[in-house]
Amino acid sequence: MKKVVKAFLFILAAAVLAAAVLVLLKLMPGIGPAPPAGKGPGAALDEPKMVDLYFADADGRRLALEARELTAPSLEESIHQAVRELIAGPRKESLSPTIPESVEIRSVYFRDGIAYVDLTPNLSDKHPGGSWAELLTVYSIINTVTENFSEVNRVQLLLGGREHDTLAGHIDISRPLPGRVQLLAGDW
Amino acid sequence: MFLNPTSRVFSRGIFNALEEIRMRRFYIAVILLAVCVALTGTPVDAGNSTTILLKNLSVSGGHPGSLKVNNGRIDIDSIVSVFSLRTSVDIMGDRLDLVGDGGSCRLLLGSSLVLSRGLFAVLTEPFDTVNGKMSVPLDFLTKALPAVIGKSVAMDRNRQSLKVGPGGSGSFKGVGPEKLDRYASFIQRGQFEPQSRGENSYEGLRVVVLDPGHGGRSDGARGSTGTVEKDLVLSVSQKLKNMLEEDLGVKVVLTRTADYYVGLKERTAIANNNRADLFMSVHANAAFRKTVQGYETYYLSFSASDLEASQLAQVENKALGVDGGAGDAPLLEAILWDMAQLEFINESGSFASQVQKSLVRSMKGKDRGVRQAPLAVLMGARMPATLVEIGFISNPSEEIKLNRDSHQERIARALFDAISDYNRELIRGEAGRGRP
Predict the structure, then answer these.
(1) Which of A152, B114, B167, B409 lies most in the core, judged by the most C-beta atoms within 10 Å?
(2) d(CA B90, CA A42)
(3) In this prediction, does ipTM exceed 0.90?
């Protein structure tokens, strides 16, 4: 009889140990097997991802890059994080922000190659208002999204959940727009 | 030292547009093939055709009357009466729909583009008013009329007679917006010249539309001591209006004359409906950093990918539809609106460069260059069009200057000089030409 109890206790202990290991593996993603490398929307992006944010240069003539590391579980949340970093502004003294600080992200969603970035309407009132400043604002967001997330072909900007012709009266944003990396050189 | 960037910027803009189109060639080829298949199904029945001679002759058969041909153009009135068409003119008076038994087509005043069945055709000359009568070039008869009357139309080699066959449906020799590149290359090579907007195009400017930016609930940029862009640009525009009327003798229309809101498309429509020869939108600049200063002048950029991606897929669905009504194609209309400025892009670039040169020279300011951008207010303008930024209101020292009446007067004079130079070139027949 003693032998049976001993064997039972051994199996119990082994089961508890196995459960503990499993829980540990779940809590510490670095240790366990790598998640499947899915690329589709909603795929896990547990690995930290380096992105290039598109800010403006000090003179407001061109877009300029600054790197950030993102960790977000999905494409939409990664875009959300990248745009939040854009709003927070550049760390380098030599760069200039492109979005007023008080602007907030209402939502980000992705469908059929188009990322919809919905910002609060105070972007219109708080924007300084020049044509080129507005162009840099629009394409700082669009480039940051299209150039860092290959799933995204175009970005539709929304204000307060609605499409608008322009942000501040100049640049056409009425439709989903592709990126313009030429703006890094100050060219349209 | 002023650097003239216009031609470089222009060719790059078109180049980018073309490159974007090339990347979508395959997609386009599939659509074109489908369009061709649809178009080849035109019935031909020569047994019972009506012949119309093109020299004000009476017409027998189903179409009594005569077509008045004058200088290679035909009066719309005579087309309407000979083919018993119905017409409708939109509320702004710059679009004419012709409706017949076979379908309809839409003409835009001052434009060579004709829209029908979800496609557009390019006429050799614009639909326009000549000697008080609306008329179209001869090729309208073969390119667009068949779709309207629902019969085939053939012109003989000597352009003496028109054969109108019976038949259930006439074709529309149109293309989808993917042909933008072909159209653009016409303009680049200078083979297509926008025709006179009246009988005396070489007598210079007659109507200039000035557009003081913003207004009403749209304040525009704000300076740190409270200067508001909408007030400043109205003041400069009014000064410029007076100079142009007194010193150049041209008619000037302002898109707004006080502090009220005017939509961006409405501003362009005011210019189109006034048959303006030149459109200038006057703005004051701003940047995130207060140190930024100087002058910028803009003209419209084209991004073919924008036209295609959002609209072509939907056009594809409509292009093959049996219903010939032009009215079912608001998307094509949007494309026509987008493309309207393309006809004048050479002149716009040339004029923008004159404006920038004049501003930088007389104000001794920092030259931030002539630029192309997708500016909403310039889209749809059917004349050379530019947007000028007359200084940075966000820069405190520029703001102080901009508030001074004498400074505003000098800016208005610099803009006047540019318009005056452009006018001189127009009279000499040089405007927008002679560049690569």
Answers:
(1) B114
(2) 48
(3) no
